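Our consortium's second objective concerns turning raw sequence data into structural hypotheses that experimental partners can test. To show how far this objective has progressed, the report includes one record in full. It was chosen at random from the queue rather than selected for favorable results. The single chain below, 234 residues long, was entered without modification.
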Amino acid sequence: MPDGSAPDWRALFLHGAGGGGWEWNRWCRIWRASGIAVHAPDLQPVSAGIEATEWQDYRGQVAEWLQALPRPRVLVGASLGGLLAMQAAEGADALIVINPLLPAPWHRELPARAWPDRVCWRSGARLASTRRSMPEADPASVLYALRRWRDESGAVLRTAQAGIAVEASRCPALFIASRDDTDVPASVVRRLAERSRAGFVEVAGGHLAPLLGRGAQQVARQAVEWLNNPGGAG
């Protein structure tokens, strides 16, 4: 493990369900300005379509992307990407997750949802619903997201909901939770961080605020500060 100086790090950002690498635009600007090489790819459906895409398809993409990065490498994931990041953490030198979908057995604390084979977040996107999901965002950011949501695989979300087992991270880890998140309660993320002996930071806002809200840049800076001194946070 190198000395952890920010210019040496390579970062892989994993987005949430129905989103894309664009969700990390604010983080990318902050991290690049700090000398960190960042990669924020889009998770790709299989050739047969989004309805045929399974959890293992996304997991395989993450493993390939991560292994292609020189070390030291930090894996950063939000929501669905957070759970994918936790599962792939053995290949990383540091881990940061933001409002992650919960692994087993913590997944039992969330209400079950009936996901169709195709979750129509792009075809069913509306300005009002996007605004409700991003109350901390400015109007321009709401419009930007509205034009970029994508449909998601119901099979992937059903697998996550059924419970994904992950090993406690052996590398330094930071868990970031939004105080007003109604999808993934901050109190549960805190307990997960404690079990993992990881750092924990609670921030203002809802589920999407740390990436798409007005305070996203500050959260990104906090993450860089932790990355420079992973033993001193939490």
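The partners drew two points from this record. The longest helix spans residues 55-68. Residues 115 and 157 are 7 Å apart (CA to CA). Both points have been shared with the crystallography group to help prioritize constructs.
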